[in-house]
Amino acid sequence: MSWKRVFVACSAVLAGAGAGGAAAAGPTTLPAEDAARLAARRTPLVRLFEACRPSVVTVTVARKGSPAGAPESRPAGESPPSRAVTHTERGSGFVIHSDGYVLTVAHVLRYGGRCRAYRDDGRGYRAEVVARDDTLDLALLKLDSREIFQPIKLARSDDLMVGERAVVLGNPFGFGLTLGAGVITGLDRKTKTDFTFLTNVIQTDAGICPGVSGGPVVNAFGEVVGMAVSRREDAQSIGFATTTDTIRAAFPALLAPEERYGFVLGLQATPGLAARVTHVEPQSPADEAQVRVHDVITAVEGRALRTGIDFYLSLVGREGGQKLRLRLLRKHRPVDTVVTLGAVPFRPAVEPGPITAGLNYRAYRGKWKALPDFDRLKPAASGTTKTFGPGTYREKDRFALVFTGYVEVPADGVYAFYTRSDDGSRLYLGDRLVVDNDAVHGSVERRGFAALRAGLHPIRVTFFDADGEEELTVCYEGPGLEKRPIPENVLFRPKDRPAPEPETRSPSNGPK
What we know:
Elements: H1 3-18, H2 32-41, H3 44-52, E1 56-65, E2 85-97, E3 101-104, E4 114-119, E5 124-133, E6 138-143, E7 165-170, E8 178-192, E9 197-204, E10 216-218, E11 224-231, E12 239-243, H4 244-255, H5 257-261, E13 263-264, E14 267-269, E15 275-280, H6 285-288, E16 296-300, E17 303-304, H7 308-313, E18 323-330, E19 333-340, E20 342-343, E21 355-357, E22 359-365, E23 381-385, E24 399-409, E25 413-422, E26 425-429, E27 432-437, E28 444-452, E29 455-465, E30 471-478, E31 481-485, E32 491-494
Antiparallel strand pairs: 1-2, 1-4, 2-3, 3-6, 4-5, 5-6, 7-8, 7-10, 8-9, 9-12, 10-11, 11-12, 13-20, 14-15, 15-16, 16-17, 16-18, 18-19, 21-32, 22-23, 22-24, 24-29, 24-32, 25-28, 25-30, 26-27, 26-29, 30-31
């Protein structure tokens, strides 16, 4: 289009606007040759961006804090700072379900705060953290809206080829939705970030930079093959992404709907392209409803499932006693059934008698490849401590610790407990193993759930270190509690009873 034609067209538009909205004279569509040129410029990459754009969001997590550079703690009696600043972590994410479920990276949530998500058109939503796995740097959010969102399709990633097109979408440095085009430059890579250690990740030269983490890595068809997680700081054009196969495989444990919401269904299904039943627990609600292995779940409560991930999302927020209508495909024939979900009993609180703050611990010395049978070992030391951790054994090797006491929870509900350790650890509530994080390994976090009544519950944490780093962190989350290390003010141990005073006798009251 010539500059003269552009000038004439703009003049006509302005004249129409100045005439109180009267129709402007002249054509209202592009000339044929210009329309053809525009169509030719709409390359597959342009169409890919336009197709994926509605499904990509910016994730922000904001928290109030002291002014930048100010100390977090203050001497007793000193007044707080006169002003506070808002610290904001930024990342990206993508919609995987029309109800507004979004996948993103867990490290954007690491400091806590108010979570929101924004679409490219500026619309913002409060975002609830449904689940997270810090070891995989993976989190699931739910947008607080009744809108119908456009999900993006998850492709398989086991057939990726080095050299094929890879496009990353995200919001770098808060500039706005951005496309970074490149190729897959490597497969099955390992990378250590400032948050975790990742294996089997994709390497790409597409632009991954701060703010893009959590955004989708898509193939030539606009299907997600990975989620951007990090870049190599000391090199250019080296970024990494978690594969969709890894995300799918982790999804049942990430969401863990039965444990998280305290109901019993009693079946396992594949989180892949279809929700195919792989296991039915005998005498469970699913078994009583005659669900069978190899059935494919095609709908829940009359709503069709696109993938196996949709099945697990359909269980979010369910409760024991609810009825769940399932449509199954069995040997190419539809089967309808109704499952009555069982209820998980709450563990009652205990009344241990006199207690005081802190925990008891026993320390052992030795070399192990797994947690030993501590009942067969003689402690090298014992004492009390305020909380969990290596304590004075930090910077030492080949030792083990056993912590015992009580943890107080504020309300009835289902609580998640976590241990992050290097090497093995386990967490028990009473005699029940809740978290199993055993074996020789680097820093790894594992999680378990327990339905608890408000009050005190016996807790025992075991830990051993072989060689290398010494790390043990114990966290929890539950009703009204974001994930956090278990604070000192909810940990207790039995109060030491004073030793009996020696009996004294006087001539007047001694034995005759």
